[in-house]
Amino acid sequence: MSAGRLDRARAWLEQDPDAETRAELEALIGAVSSGSADAEIELADRFDARLAFGTAGLRGELAAGPNRMNRVLVTQAARGLADWLLASGRDASVVIGYDGRKNSRVFAEDTARIMAGAGVRAVLLPRLLPTPVLAFAVRHVDVGAGVMVTASHNPPRDNGYKVYLGGPDEGSQIVSPVDAEIAAAIDAVAAGSIVDLPRSDDFETADDTVVDAYVARTAQVASTRPSAQPVVVYTAMHGVGWETTARVLEEAGFDRPIVVEQQLHPDPDFPTVAFPNPEEPGALDLAYETARAHSADLIIANDPDADRLAVAIPDHSDPTGYRRLTGNEVGALLGWRAAESLSSRDEGAPEGTLACSIVSSPALAAVARRYGLEFADTLTGFKWVSRAPGLVFGYEEALGYLVNPETVRDKDGISAAVAFLDLAARLAADGSDVARRLDAFSETFGHFASDQVSVRVDDLSRITATMSRLRESPPSEIGGVRIDRVDDLVDGFGSLPPSDVLRFHLGDGSRVMVRPSGTEPKLKVYIDVSSETGTLAERIVDAEARLAILRAGVSDLVA
């Protein structure tokens, strides 16, 4: 047993203002003192490491200790961010939002008091709201930074802390080297106790005009008042999306969707889903059930903080009666919509940039080429996508879409829902639908097929070892398909900053990318193929067959 570890735990206990985490830490310390080996392992996990503050901010399980999310850690982060703001020369002001997860409001209010106590102007949003509203508020309120307390679609016991920058960063999330500078400021605070940090109730609480402005701007994403409307089912996945989404859809002229009542209101326990992520198997089962009951034409789903959008369409070949579109399919359709909109203006040749993360489908690049637009691929995360010069539309395959960069410089599941409903309504007015639009995309640009293989690990060293092996002894083929070139992004590549990513270009034009997940203990592999010759049916068969071969080969590659 480490006496130093116990001393650190007791010092943490002395400064913890939360009765719940104090009680569970006291019990853990008692069990360790009584000789429990399991308790010693748990204490080591909590106190031998610290949740790292990076470009994704903080995210972790709610519990006591520096390697968990709790009021002590959040207070240290808030004061560190305040110190950085005051020293950076930026406007010393911050707007703070929070979602419906456990302790989100507590963490937000702690942040506001710490900021105000440090001399930073702090503005707290009026109630629990979607992440896109906070991202919008950074520019609307014109502050130096924004903080959103959310763990997005993570498991129920998690929470997190995302940081945005105003001014020249226009409300985008932080990127390097700012993350390291803030992390250093947080570490300096963590070297002492939070007990003596000054706090103040002299912070502002924003009124509803911030939300009203977001609603008005987001409703404008719809191109026209819809003349035909599909039957739509909506689920908020127990998150905070519904209230704001309902207002936006009404303002844009859409009918009120049929809602999944069991998942409509915020609930930090997420009782109807094992994992509150619309990408996860089973997460949309209640939405499918509701859609079948109403013969719905479309399902739209937000994740718990409403920064992501999932879409499902009728599919009689699926046992549920519906098929969730992939993020790449939705991104391709929304990117095509954006390109068409630009080309329809009477202002000469269309200008602007379509952007997506490097692990997203090459389909968007094909759209940009066809319409004479710029294309940018970025590192994963909207902190990068949102910064593409001249951006008019951006997405990443993990259900994130940025359709109105002049309003929000982050993924936004509400504005994306408006854009997709606008497209669906226009198709319905023309006697078409989303499924036929997907076929038209494949006929126009080629059929693009994508897949992802994820390897979840208990020991993170396995991920490091796999990446090292692939770098030191790169394969010559995957699934029998020759590898022509390997791009290693570890030191940067072209205009891309350094990242732990390997990109394999194959002889048949396919692409395979391997990277560690930024938020979960996973190694992720992304596979992309395309087919541009033959009939639509021939393109689909060709692409799907090649995808299956690569999927099997990738499983051997990262086993």
TrEMBL record:
GO biological process: carbohydrate metabolic process; purine ribonucleoside salvage
The organism's place on the tree of life at top rank: Bacteria
Alpha-D-phosphohexomutase C-terminal domain ranges (all copies): 484-542
Cofactor: Mg(2+)
Keywords on record: Isomerase, Magnesium, Metal-binding, Phosphoprotein
Domain spans labelled Alpha-D-phosphohexomutase alpha/beta/alpha: 51-188, 213-315, 327-435
Molecular function as annotated in GO: magnesium ion binding; phosphopentomutase activity
Family matches, as InterPro entries: A-D-PHexomutase_a/b/a-I, A-D-PHexomutase_a/b/a-I/II/III, A-D-PHexomutase_a/b/a-II, A-D-PHexomutase_a/b/a-III, A-D-PHexomutase_C, A-D-PHexomutase_C_sf, A-D-PHexomutase_CS
Pfam families documented for this protein: PGM_PMM_I (PF02878), PGM_PMM_II (PF02879), PGM_PMM_III (PF02880), PGM_PMM_IV (PF00408)
Family: Belongs to the phosphohexose mutase family.
PANTHER family: PHOSPHOGLUCOMUTASE 2B-RELATED (PTHR45745:SF1), PHOSPHOMANNOMUTASE 45A (PTHR45745)
Protein name: Phospho-sugar mutase
Organism ancestry: Bacteria, Bacillati, Actinomycetota, Actinomycetes, Micrococcales
